[in-house]
Structure formats: structure tokens, C-alpha cells
Write a structure and sequence with these properties.
Elements: E1 4-7, H1 14-28, E2 34-41, H2 49-57, H3 63-66, E3 68-70, E4 80-84, E5 99-105, E6 119-122, H4 130-147
Parallel strand pairs: 1-2, 1-4, 2-3, 4-5, 5-6
């Protein structure tokens, strides 16, 4: 209960997967229970060799055991979503209780969730990953400055 699921776009490319993992990590380290959701079905993930390579570099050596994939059962109590690399919640997750609490994207703004998203960053940049990475740099700087006090 109280978890936020970070969902990348349906393509499941490296930009989307890395953005979902990065933003989930960032939210989870700011005292929010968060998990990334990989939109590629578990049985098809091997087709995304670039994702497997990048995850290996990030020391996620057992991605089939360590990550949450499309097709894995979504707990019924999950109602909060953060969207990365797209800005409209897929209809299969849009239940009456679903609430989009963050949108981090680099595509054309569809103008949704302005009343519910506490973080809403939509900038026309080359890669969505640079948006949570910028937030991560700020978070890291703040953490380091607190360690010195």
C-alpha cells in the first residue's frame, strides 16, 4: 500500500528503461516507496540486448529476478503511477482509483495530470533520461552538502 509504480513507454527501449529505473531510484531515496515497471514482457526482454548490456554495467546481473515486468501481476492496491518517456497513462492501468503523481517526458505534452502530478517535467530534449539525471544531480548535491554539516 502506498507504492508508486514508475512506467516507461511501451517501446521499452533503453531510454525508457533507464529513465524508469533512475526515476524510481530517485523517488525511493526521497522517502517514497517506488518501483520501476519494465513495459517489455519478461519473456521478450532478451530481445532488448542494449537493455541487458546496460543493466549488466549497472550491476543488475539477474534482471529477470530483480525487475518488475509487463505481464507480472500488478497488485490491486497500486493506484499511483509516475510516467517517464511518455505522458499519458495506458488505458489498461487507468482504473477509477489510478492517480498519476509524476510525469517526466521529452515528447509533445498531452496536457494531462496537471492537477495530480507533483512532479511534471516535460522538456523537448534528445533523451528522457537526461531529465531524471538532472534531478539526481541536484539530489546528490543536496545530500553531499548535508553530510558536511
Amino acid at each position: 500500500r502506498g507504492w508508486t509504480v514508475v512506467i516507461g513507454n511501451e517501446a521499452g527501449d533503453l531510454d525508457s528503461v533507464a529513465s524508469a529505473l533512475g526515476y524510481a531510484w530517485l523517488r525511493s531515496h526521497t522517502s517514497r516507496k517506488t518501483i520501476a515497471y519494465i513495459t517489455t514482457p519478461r519473456e521478450d526482454f532478451f530481445l532488448r540486448e542494449e537493455n541487458l548490456h546496460a543493466l549488466g554495467l549497472a550491476e543488475i546481473d539477474q534482471p529477470y529476478e530483480e525487475l518488475y515486468y509487463s505481464g507480472d501481476s500488478m497488485p490491486s492496491q497500486v493506484s499511483k503511477f509516475a510516467l517517464v518517456d511518455h505522458n499519458v497513462l495506458h488505458p489498461k492501468y487507468a482504473t477509477p482509483t489510478a492517480r498519476v503523481v509524476a510525469v517526466i517526458d521529452h515528447h509533445t505534452d498531452e496536457g494531462q495530470y496537471k492537477d495530480t502530478a507533483d512532479s511534471r517535467i516535460i522538456e523537448m530534449v534528445g533523451s528522457c533520461l537526461c531529465l531524471p539525471t538532472s534531478s539526481l544531480r541536484i539530489f546528490y548535491f543536496i545530500e553531499k552538502s548535508h553530510e558536511g554539516n
